[in-house]
Amino acid sequence: MNSFWRVVGAVLARDVRAEWRRKDIFTTIVMFGLLTVMVFVFAFDPARHERADVVPGTLWASFLFAGILGLNRSASRDSQDDQISGVVTSPADRGALYLGKTLSNLLFMVIGEAIVLVAVAFFFDLDGRHLAPEFFALLVLGTLGFIGVGTIFALVSQKTRMQEVMTPILLLPVILPLLRAVIEGTKIVFDPTGNDGLGSWIQLAAGYDVIFLIAGFLLYGFVLED
Amino acid sequence: MDAVVEARGVSRRYGRFWALRGLDLDLRAGEAVALLGANGAGKSTLLSTLATLARPSEGTLKIAGVDPRKDPAKVRRDLGYVAHHTLLDDALDARENLRYYGALFGVTDLDARVDQRLAEVGLSDRARDRVEGFSRGMRQRLSLARALLHDPKLMVLDEPFTGLDAPGCRDLADHLRKEKARGAAMVLATHQLDYVLQWADRVVILHLGRKVDELPANTYDDRGWAGHLTDVAAAREAVS
């Protein structure tokens, strides 16, 4: 294994191992995600609203808020006992560090999302017809872009005085195009009248991911060291 | 002997505040320099600059012949950094922490190297224990093992004795002395001079970001850095 993938594997293994023992990121994502779903269930009676009107907002708001807390938890764990200095003073490829960190955050987020999705499916009476491949494509693209950008901004936030507060302030404006794409796409998936325009929203989300993941890969070193 | 640190006119500015001004420092393999001075004298800034955590605002710096601004990764391969924070992950055990950092530093034959370093710092029997259960002394020994995994040419140590009891300080000093004998160059800042002066080669006294004196460690006496600072100030006044 070359040194790049060795670093990716080391970061991923360390994060997974630490999370397996602490379970704080996972707990944060799941608990906050489920609570957000409950708020939406109370606010919009699932029996009286069209799924296409309620489910996309419920899903993505839950993922977004829970994910921001999870990203902050993950980044603040890296700052404990000044571990960031240990990483900065290593010769490890910065792109590999970013990839490893993004993959671990992605893993925690996907597991959390799966549980939140089960809750949404239960409360809003979703079945196999709604959970189409297009829906999962939107889920993957939305989560990937969100985590890819969020990993950078959670690190930036750790270096500011306001720390956790800074992550949503910095992250939300940047991911607005992605959010728009996945929410509009999810609305179409849940709309029983057809799926016109779905492809465009998927393309927009995919394009966003490609651009911002490459940017993250290239910029992580600057953020880490400054 | 090879020059490990060559600093010429190194300065570091934070906004309008100069934390370090025009510092010259030379250090060869197997040499140890202790940095002394009051809080805010510039010790930590100098150590951060040497550890590549901060870039010089002015001046030239070479570590093992390489400018950290031009090739930071190459410099970092020759660098071991120990601070009062241990840089360790509490949730991992001692061995996992070393394996993680070994991968980041590209250490080959990692398992054997980890075993060797754990044995050297007396933690072989605690290799599978999580760091969160370690005493401060054990953490600092593990932190030293982490910094030494890749056999660095330069050790940068920022208050490594903080929080250690007397046996812990003696133990850490013994380890550092051995690394110096191996040929590692060392720059360290500490207030626990008793554990350093017997084996350090030189003492550098910093004041308000400037180097005000550099003297052999065996000539440094118990008046402390403040006493030497007074001598330097008096000598300058006499000359002027």
How does this model look, in words?
The complex is a heterodimer of chains A (226) and B (240). By secondary structure, chain A is mainly alpha-helical. Chain A has one domain (3-225). Chain A has helices spanning 3-22, 24-43, 51-79, 83-88, 94-123, 133-158, 166-190, 198-225. Chain A is globular. Chain B has 240 residues and is an alpha/beta fold. Chain B has a domain at 1-78 and 155-162 and 184-240: Rossmann fold (3-Layer(aba) Sandwich), CATH 3.40.50.300. Chain B has 7 helices and 9 strands, in the order E-E-E-H-E-H-E-H-H-H-E-H-E-E-E-H. Chain B has a 6-stranded mixed beta sheet, sandwiched between helices. A 3-stranded antiparallel beta sheet of chain B has the order 2-1-4, with helices on one face. In chain B, helix 5 runs parallel beside helix 6. The termini of chain B are far apart. The mean pLDDT of chain B is 90. The interface between A and B is medium-sized, with 24 and 29 residues.
How would you summarize this macromolecular structure in one to three sentences?
The complex is a heterodimer of chains A (226) and B (240). With 226 residues, chain A is mainly alpha-helical.
Oligomer: heterodimer
Major sheet attributes of chain B: 6 strands, mixed
* Biggest beta sheet attributes of chain A: none
- Order of SSEs of chain A, N→C? HHHHHHHH
Number of helical elements of chain A: 8
> How many β-strand runs of chain B?
9
Low-confidence stretches of chain A: none
Amino- and carboxy-terminal Cα gap of chain B:
37 Å
